[in-house]
């Protein structure tokens, strides 16, 4: 039936620069943003890359702070705030994945400085106004305009070093944003287009990256897909899948991207009957059934397939189900304890969802 349904669409303002070699133009982007000195952020693992990037910036670099850690611990942010103030920086450049980007967001949330982000994974945090931080073992999520990075420089060359296993799980993490975006209550026609194109790009790119991690075309396609999927995450509300991932990550400390990768086929299969029309184009992309198709796809990429492989014990599943059904996010299919427990059992064992 023809006729557009009513919608509202709030666009997140950001400058997106996408090109092979784009990170070499960082100094230009600093000037353009009206910034003069950047504190370069990284994890300890990417410290050398951050130092090389700072060296290229010359006197536009105020220093390197390479202590970013998973889940944005407030103690690390406080040390980074002190380093920012001591260095005389007026902006940050985050070089890395969601952990480093989270640190940049946490700084900007406190001092509203300009953020320039150079993402090196597919997690998508760079285009969302959302920050998750942890203190005393508690993770809280905040949303604010100051959290959204002003400039994102996507340089596929920097993703060539992302190990194949991480490329796969990070790519599936991005695809999860798109799948949940398709049935989001507050979806709009543009996020729908972005979600499908993001899924298509990652579906095409990930198998090529697994076969040849140095394939520049596939690396560019995957990063393009992750931008689209991340933008969907930053624009509309997420549902059961993200709630379950937060539950497992928060209560059992399971790794972020792997948890998303394992759960996605199961949460998609759970919601498929309740959002058949919304998910039909994505199911067609994945070979007919979305849950089963995503499971086959993940397996073909040699992704981790079962929660037990992440160290979760079968005895934890009851508690995980209890937490997951408490204060559930809106979801197209009612979130019922028994059905969620069964979903978790399947994801724990690693069986193909029905
Ligand atoms: P990550 O940032 O934790 O990176 C994992 C490891 O890989 C780090 O040691 C990192 O230095 C290294 N790495 C990153 N890129 C690399 C590359 N190209 N080559 C070699 N090594 C590389 O992983 P992630 O999955 O990108 O981020 C996960 C975190 O981001 C979680 O804390 C999650 O909650 C958060 N996140 C937040 C949002 C949001 O919108 N707020 C969105 C997605 C993820």
Overview of this protein structure:
- By secondary structure, this protein is α/β, with parallel strands linked by helices.
- It folds into 2 domains: 15-159, Rossmann fold; 164-349, Up-down Bundle (Dehydroquinate synthase-like, alpha domain), CATH 1.20.1090.10.
- 51% of the residues lie in helices and 12% in strands.
- It has a 6-stranded parallel β-sheet with strand order 1-8-5-4-2-3, sandwiched between helices. A two-stranded antiparallel ribbon has the order 6-7.
- Strand 2 (38-41), helix 2 (47-57) and strand 3 (61-65) form a beta-alpha-beta unit.
- Helix 5 (164-183) packs parallel to helix 7.
- The longest helix has 23 residues, at 189-211.
- The radius of gyration is 20 Å and the shape is globular.
- The two termini are 30 Å apart.
- The model has no long low-confidence stretch (mean pLDDT 97).
- Bound molecules: nicotinamide-adenine-dinucleotide.
Label this structure with key terms.
single chain; 354 residues; alpha/beta; Rossmann fold; Dehydroquinate synthase-like, alpha domain; 2 domains; six-stranded parallel beta sheet; two-stranded antiparallel sheet; 8 strands; 51% helix; binds nicotinamide-adenine-dinucleotide
What layout of secondary structure does this protein have?
Blueprint: E1 15-18, H1 26-32, E2 38-41, H2 47-57, E3 61-65, H3 74-87, E4 91-96, H4 98-111, E5 114-119, E6 130-135, E7 138-143, E8 151-154, H5 164-183, H6 189-211, H7 216-235, H8 240-252, H9 256-271, H10 276-285, H11 290-300, H12 316-325, H13 337-349
Parallel strand pairs: 1-8, 2-3, 2-4, 4-5, 5-8
Antiparallel strand pairs: 6-7
This protein binds nicotinamide-adenine-dinucleotide (NAD).
